[in-house]
Amino acid sequence: MESADLARLVAFGTTRSFDSLLIARHGKIVLDAYYAPYTADIPHAINSSTKAVIGTLIAMLHKDGLLDRLDHPMLDFFSGRDIANVDERKRAITVQHLLDMTSGFEWEEGAEGGREQSLIDLGRARDWTQFILDRPMAHQPGEVFYYNSGNPDLLSAIITKLTGKRAADYAQEKLFAPLGIDPPFWRRDPQGLSIGACCLFLSAHDMAKIGYLYLRHGEWDGQQLLPPEWIEAVSRATIDMHLKADPSLRYSNLFWAIPDKHVYMSVGYHCQVVMVFPRTDIVAAMTARNFCGFSKVADMIAGAVKSEAPLPANPDGADQLARAVADVATEKRTEVGATPPLAAAISGKTYGFPDSPLGIKSLTLHLADVEPHYQVEIYTHGPTDSSIRLNGPIGLDGLYRKSIRTNFGVRAVKGSWLDEHTFAIDVQYVGQGEQRHWSLRFDADKVTLSGKAEDGRDITIDGIAGG
Q: What fold is seen in the domain 342-465?
């Protein structure tokens, strides 16, 4: 692979807010880049790439005989529950339908925009499995593809039903331990089940190992961990996702594919992706804080391939790549405005906000302290409508300050004055693939908070000191 082309790919990652980028060919790592303030030692949320791990575990259950067949009726695994809206269509749902997102449930997730109403309602439910099972039917199973995160959540429940273990524990035994992956953090639902749709945290190297297992037809260290026919189905995905953004995309067994580019992949929100290129023997793993064009990334990776044999030495290209990797790993100081007298006046005051898509309930900025810091309370909209409180340092010199590490990563925060009344806050949830930009305009005891909601909408709300 041409080093200069890989250097351009690293630079492209900065335009899409990458956190990490790893490429391996013929079993050897050729690129391993981390974008500040993210670092390689922080596990990263892989979001919906978790779904591909759930699919992998289902394949293992089938291979080991714990799941007799992939077309087994789904309701058989929940016979002890009183399920609403049961009809012939719901009785016809199979494990394979769940794997292919063709279950036919009535569901609203906004995969290409729109409100994620079903996910909002699911988050407020006390029993997620029951909530999903109770959904009415909109289509005959197998008739229509619809991206539905409830499907892999049901598969997680099935894994527990068949093994007596959480999906995370079964994965540790059958997948993570054989691949040399340390036990990762994996969030649970209110019933204690591993969330099947998301919320698994892995490093880029861990992600690449899972991709390499698929690249090697399910074999690892002399063991056949996955049935080859499962890999074949994934690599030749045929289910049309009907996505306007890219009509070429296909789906199979909780994996995405771009057939005309001979690539298949696990995909998570904000470009948490593992790409497998069988024809060129490549695995690529990337994490990011923004969306990326899958076809564009695939073309850039494939375009760096020049031959099957090692290329002649190219010191200039190698130096260009080394400098590109070092550059993105170094945090760049941003401009900060002059500190106005208002900074001391608002320091230590707590401002309360009404519920909104921004999720901020209260905020306190300690800007006049020797070590500036913040306290924030966030609405969680869980079953009890509780909130959580977070605190940490804030950089006022154009560089991020990081919070202590938790299972959910690290918060890196910096702030700057845009004018005498407006303070801007930049928050990276390092390891979660999320970034927020807020502005606060102060007027006496009132403040106006502006920012973008998760769905990209511009939101402005008013708060008050002590409110």
A: Lipocalin (2.40.128)
pLDDT tens digit sequence for 254-300: 999 999 999 999 999 999 999 999 999 999 999 999 999 999 999 99
Q: Which of 21, 9, 195, 161 is CA-nearest to residue 78?
A: 161
3-state class (DSSP) for residue 24: strand
H helix runs in 64-203, sequence order: 88-91, 95-99, 117-124, 128-133, 150-163, 167-171
Q: What is the mean pLDDT of residues 63-90?
A: 97
For residue 61 the two structure tokens come to: 């259950």
**Residue spans per domain, the chain:** 3-303, 342-465
Secondary structure class of 238 (helix, strand, coil): coil
What is d(CA 405, CA 401) in angstroms, rounded to the nearest whole number?
12
Looking at the DSSP bridge assignments, the partners of residue 427 are: 413, 436
Domain 3-303: homologous superfamily in CATH:
DD-peptidase/beta-lactamase superfamily (3.40.710.10)
Global pTM exceeds 0.70: yes
CA gap 57, 153 in Å, rounded: 13
How does pLDDT run across 436-445, given as a tens digit for each residue? Answer: 999 999 999 9
H helices of 134-203, in order, are: 150-163, 167-171
Q: Name, in order, each residue with C-beta under 8 angstroms of 315's C-beta and a sequence gap of 6 or more.
A: none
**By C-alpha distance, which of 217, 236, 237, 235 is closest to 227?**
217
* Among the listed residues 273, 233, 238, the one whose alpha carbon sits nearest the alpha carbon of residue 51: 273
Q: Which of 35, 243, 281 is nearest to 267 (CA)?
A: 243
Please, are residues 94 and 71 in contact by the beta-carbon 8 Å criterion? yes
